[in-house]
Design brief:
Helices cover 50% and strands 22% of the residues. By secondary structure, it is of the alpha+beta class. The protein has a domain of 203 residues.
Length: 379
């Protein structure tokens, strides 16, 4: 719906998804217990942290295109609050504790309303978040983020921040206040699905061998279809920068969850093993009560134990559910333009060596005005 321009309908569905996810944090005790004897797949899928945050990203864009800038900012704040809450309640902290791209968008949205102090705060937080992005995802802060930060500091008259950023990034001048600004968001590719792997441990048990099977999910990264892209307008050209590597975030987020997943898997394997032991013992006890010989009782216990082991083995599956419609990366084009009308386009170079031109709507920019456009390319 979002890509079809049905922004209100899109937000209705995204709101339902967000509300459902919040409700699912109230655990169902029945399904929690069932998952101990089967797998995580019996529980409703709540989504990964980055998936939850991207709900707010799409809602924010929808509101922006509906000319509801303040509602868009509410969504970006909610995304930040979600990450803060989640990491506060995790025993093992995630690397993905703030979203640099969302903070950048927040700064731009504040600028659109002339809220330069708030824009400055958001831009600084985006820059701080890129410290993690550089370390874990290999992404550097784009130069235009520094330019907007310097302009916001200058217009807010917070000169100590201006001097600090200028000294850290010598040679970068603040963005022009007189020119208009065109920002183009390009969402690239499609997220790969999770895969599963297993670890099997044989456990000797009287006259039987119980097979402990533990399942784990993982991401196998797939090539991103876009190698590079350029924004073209009025004989000007600007290369797009990757600001969000969703695939890299997903892989690292899953790694960060590994300790929690191992703890769950260990608990599940223990519960299954105890169920196997209990089934054998109760079967043998019942058989002896029915005057069966020890050999017959043990044989019946062995048979029931085997059946329980087959059940626990085959029901042990990793949770491979995910939001497959998400892009792998988000690139951003930035161009400062003199006031006037423009018909921009994107020139995309594909991994297969071909080029694709994406047309963009004609825009009119006033001095100091900011316009945001977005496109999606799947393959």
């Amino acid at each position: 719906m979002h890509y079809a321009g049905r922004y209100e309908a899109s937000n209705i569905e995204l709101e339902k998804a967000e509300r459902l996810r919040e409700e699912l944090y109230t655990h169902s005790l029945t399904k929690e217990a069932a998952s101990l004897l089967t797998s995580e797949n019996v529980k409703p899928y709540r989504g990964d942290d980055f998936e939850d945050v991207l709900i707010n990203y799409y809602k924010a864009l929808n509101y922006l295109y509906l000319n509801k800038r303040e509602d868009a900012l509410v969504e970006l704040r909610r995304a930040d609050e979600k990450l803060a809450y989640l990491n506060l309640h995790y025993e093992h902290k995630n690397v993905y504790r703030s979203d640099a791209f969302m903070e950048f968008l927040s700064g731009v949205f504040h600028e659109m309303g002339g809220e330069y102090n708030d824009a400055l705060v958001s831009y600084r937080r985006a820059l701080e978040s890129y410290e993690d992005y550089r370390k874990f995802y290999g992404l550097e802060p784009p130069e235009f983020l520094i330019k907007r930060l310097l302009l916001a500091a200058k217009l807010s008259e917070i000169y100590e921040v201006y001097e600090e950023i200028s000294s850290r990034f010598p040679g970068i001048e603040p963005a022009s206040r007189e020119k208009g600004l065109l920002i183009v968001i390009l969402e690239c590719g499609q997220m790969p699905g999770k895969k599963e792997d297993f670890v099997e441990i044989p456990v000797r048990e009287k006259n039987d061998t119980y097979i402990v099977r533990v399942a784990f999910s993982y991401y196998e990264p797939s090539p991103i279809p876009v190698v590079s892209a350029a924004l073209l307008a009025d004989n000007l050209q600007a290369e797009l920068r990757t600001m969000e590597d969703i695939q890299a975030i997903a892989i690292k987020n899953l790694e960060d969850k590994k300790a929690r997943e191992i703890a769950k898997a260990t608990l599940r394997a223990t519960a299954k093993y105890l169920a196997y032991r209990k089934a054998r013992e109760e079967t043998e006890k019942y058989a002896r009560k029915k005057k069966k010989s020890d050999e017959e009782a043990e044989l019946l216990g062995l048979i029931v134990g085997k059946l329980v082991n087959i059940f626990t083995y085959t029901t042990e599956r990793a949770d491979t559910r995910s939001w497959l419609g998400l892009p792998q990366t988000i690139m951003v084009g930035y161009m400062e333009l003199d006031p006037g009308s423009y018909t921009p386009e994107l020139r995309v170079r594909k991994r297969n060596g071909s080029y694709q031109t994406l047309s963009l709507p004609t825009i009119t920019l006033q001095s100091g005005e900011i316009k945001i456009l977005s496109r999606r390319i799947f393959n």
